[in-house]
Write a structure and sequence with these properties.
It is a single chain. This protein has 9 helices and 14 strands. A hairpin with a 6-residue loop joins strand 13 and strand 14 (290-297). The protein is α/β, with parallel strands linked by helices. The chain folds into 2 domains: 10-93, Alpha-Beta Plaits (2-Layer Sandwich); 135-297, 3-Layer(aba) Sandwich (Rossmann fold), CATH 3.40.50.150. The strands form 3 sheets. Strands 10-9-8-11-12-14-13 form a 7-stranded mixed beta sheet, sandwiched between helices. The protein is globular.
Length: 298
């Protein structure tokens, strides 16, 4: 995270429908040069998500907001926002107060402010703090992936080659590294994600097991012609359907793919894209409006 001044930062808060939240977070974080100190996203209600971007000055926060194409959403009242300076307190802890721990089977995603809340029976705690790269784990998409992964582990699945595609903050790669104990490949189109994944790997003592790279699609040198026994793809429904042929081709025989970032109403559409590629798709339970899918190559 970039350095900040001694004055408390200014927060740009945006609440939107969950179908728009990821795109908004990208505009504030990945697709901006506005020097955000941190960008975080978390569930606000069953239908909405909250996005928070922190800036050193009010002018930076306002410039970032004005530079983005938010007007249309505001006019249709699908989004609300405001800018406020955080209190003169420990603003890092304050900014993460809305990110409660996430239990997912034997996994437990938590921020440093909740380190004392790790249950005694948790086998794989994962510390993730709000930062510039998308993915704090505090929403149904990541929890869905972790629950599916935990179920596969309980079935004694031991994938030798694992890919976290669109790794964001590296949560799934870190989970796999902790549970499997060997090297995991993590890729994302954004350099910030690579950096934050490496930082989180160090935070969770799995640096030697995480190989993070910037890669835009399966033609990237690090992915080209490689196959995997397990692929995590927690992205969005649209990109997933577009990548269905490449993801399917990258799966080894009998390999599994865990798909997420899918709204409930998009699940059938995404499932069809992968069944059309010959995969067997097993629907999973909805988690607060999000559906994850488990696929297996025949």
């Amino acid at each position: 995270m970039p350095s900040h001044k001694s004055e408390p930062p200014f927060a740009l808060f945006i609440r939107s429908h969950k179908s728009d939240a990821f795109d908004i977070a990208d505009l504030l974080g990945f697709d901006t040069d506005m020097d955000a100190l941190a960008v975080s996203i978390f569930e606000d209600s069953p239908d909405t998500m909250a996005i928070q971007a922190l800036f050193e000055t009010e002018d930076q926060a306002m410039a970032c907001f004005n530079a983005r194409e938010f007007d249309k959403a505001m006019k249709t009242k699908t989004m609300e926002s405001f800018i406020a300076q955080l209190p003169d307190e420990d603003w890092v802890s304050l900014s993460q107060a809305g990110l409660p721990p996430v239990p997912a089977g034997r996994f437990f995603v938590y921020g440093s402010h909740d380190a004392d809340k790790i249950p005694d029976d948790v086998q794989f705690p994962i510390e993730i703090n709000a930062g510039l790269a998308f993915g704090t784990g505090h929403h149904g998409t990541t929890r869905g992936c972790l629950l599916i992964f935990d179920a596969l582990l309980q079935q004694e699945l031991t994938p030798a080659r694992v890919l976290d595609l669109g790794c964001g903050a590296g949560i799934l790669a870190i989970a796999a590294a902790k549970a499997i104990g060997h090297k995991i490949l993590a890729t994302d189109i954004d350099p910030d994600a690579k950096m934050v994944t490496q930082q989180n790997a160090a935070l969770n003592d799995v640096t030697p097991l995480i190989e993070a790279h910037v890669a835009d699609g399966f033609n990237a040198p690090i992915l080209k012609d490689k196959t995997f026994d397990l692929i995590f793809a927690n992205i969005l429904a649209g990109p997933l359907t577009q990548l269905a042929p490449d993801i399917s081709a990258a799966l080894a025989p009998k390999g599994h793919v865990i798909l997420s970032g899918i709204l409930d109403e998009q699940a059938d559409w995404v499932a069809k894209a992968f069944t059309d590629q010959g995969l067997n798709i097993i629907p999973q339970n909805s988690l607060k409006g999000w559906t994850s899918l488990l696929g297996q190559k025949t």
